[in-house]
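Feature request disguised as a bug report, sorry. It would help if multi-protein outputs had a clear separator. Right now it looks like this:
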Amino acid sequence: MANLKEVGTELRDAGAQAVQGAVQGVQAGVTEGVRHAAPGLEALARFGYASKGVVYGTIGLLALNLALGRSGQVTDSQGALTRIHDLPLGGLLIWLLVVGLLGYALWQLLRALLDPEEQGNGPKGLLKRAGYALSGVTNFGVAYFAYRLATQAAVTAGGSSQKDLARQVLDWPGGQILLGLAGLVMLVVGGVQVANAVGGKFMKRMALHDFAARHAETVRRVGQAGIAARGVVLGAVGVFLLLAAWKGSASGVRDTAGILNWLHDQGSALLAVVALGTLCYGAWCFVQALYRRIRIGD
């Protein structure tokens, strides 16, 4: 019996070593591939930041026009892409945004999986990396919508809305708790972004030079306004999710467009402030495209 146990232990250890070796081999292969592709991936990530800037700049500009009483609207990423598609040469612009948004999504997934920025495996680092992964998946969805716009004559924006998703979650066992946790996460993420904006910590990942270096304070203030506005919108989404979980009804859930529309109902001045901040966030994305330190591989 003892011999059988020893044999079983040896087989188990051998199996564990084999699995560990296989995992390490896959990681080494991925890392090596990323290292060779690093220059192209960096260029793609920078193009991704610029593409994200186009989308958020469009959202902010449309909302600001509405707040000022001009021809504008409140919308989200899909609505912004639809408006861009309707412009002259819009089809070409959308194809460029497809590539850019895919590049940004890929960069976020690389940040999550390979941890090139060394966030670590502690609770705080894992939470940040989970956020990068979620951002990557979300932006893949936005890129797919842009691809559908580019390849089809007409695509309806919206699809399965946040309200529909919240309604489905509430139908699950423990759905109210899950929806409440989602709202809490959004609220915390929004709060962290606002705190990050106030403290100016985002500047540590920038390598300003030339024109930007001479106007570093202006760049910092644009980043503060943009990141703070983004944090306010995300936090507001979280608050409405929490209220929906408390009431057990998804009717009050709001996405980005819903938050902007709610602000408009409270007064044009509030919408104008957040819209201007969103416009600054789009500009900040362009700044990151040019000056952000992007480390992919060694």
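(second protein starts here, but nothing in the output says so)
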Amino acid sequence: MYPMLKPALRRAWRSHGTVQFGTTRAHAVKFGPLDITTGSFLELLDGTRGLPLLYEEARALGLSEAQVDTLVDRLVNAGLADDVRAAGAEADALRSRPGALERHRPDLASLSVVHPEPGGGMRRLAARRAMRVQVRGAGRVGAAIAAVLSGSGVGRVEVLDGGHAEPSDVSPGGLPATAVGERRDTAARQLVRRSAPGTAPRATETAGSPGGGEPGLSLVVVAPRDGFSVYVPDPRSAEPWITSGTPHLYAGVMEATGIVGPLVLPGGTACAQCMALERAARDPDWTRMLSQWRSGRRTAVQACDLGLATAVAGLAAAHALSFLDGDLPASTGTRWEAALPLLDWRAERWSPRLDCTCGAAGDIGRDRSSGSEARQDTMAG
């Protein structure tokens, strides 16, 4: 073991004999009791020394091997120490790509805090490389989501869209101005490749049907340029994902309102058809209005504020990554909305319908967990 104190957690002495690791409420941990000698020994836990060398340097400070073992065990159990050589073959492969790993240092520091077990952060970061995500839409929201996912280490990011890029598609985090006039799928493929860390080429695709008919699809992110398809998702377009059991997350901007979610887990949470049935049950005029909204051809420019679109893309990408890393984010079965100008994010929970054929209503009691839950302060002693 090569123990290293989590670099992302700032340290401060709270009082004599007690150190606090971390500043935010969600991840702060109190650790003690510690004396001055043991506190000095903490500075040696930087990942460059194995236990034999740590034993040797500890003896110079007057600490025994047993004391070192006890201290390291307590730090590990409190989620404060990592092992820089842990996490298996996939992590070793990532370490062998120094350029990519240097790009990922901030991501790794974050993951090591969220997943406190030794090697937990590196294991999840390495696992992203084998994942395949499909983003449906290459507008201001979709293209930025694809870029963030690729830059975060997702090995295969596919972007599906039609037509040619227009000036209104351009955004700082998405398609560049030089993409105007190019096919959207081609421009998005180039964006994904540029965003990927390291020099190894990314396998990207821009063709196929929803769900792709191909195994290994980890997630579909539905982010069409027309935000109406996110606010009122069409159950027919989601049928292939429900049938194949493919998780899918909605994200977009509709009439100056940002939308993230719901993340649909087929058979476990409300689907697009559940949402349609619930809306019709709540509002007797809904079906009539919906048929009018969907009829005809819209030529008006979509209201998609650049700042709001960027915020939606970032939040949606973060929710997607949380899911890919093995957690259920707050968008699971829930839609988050924020409207200009106040930008007050509000959540709306959607429950599965018994009259929907997706079958999720039989699993309403499914346990939901979130990696964002605050850990309780730990006094090790």
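Even a blank line would do. Unrelated, but nice: Residues 306-324 form the longest helix (19 residues).
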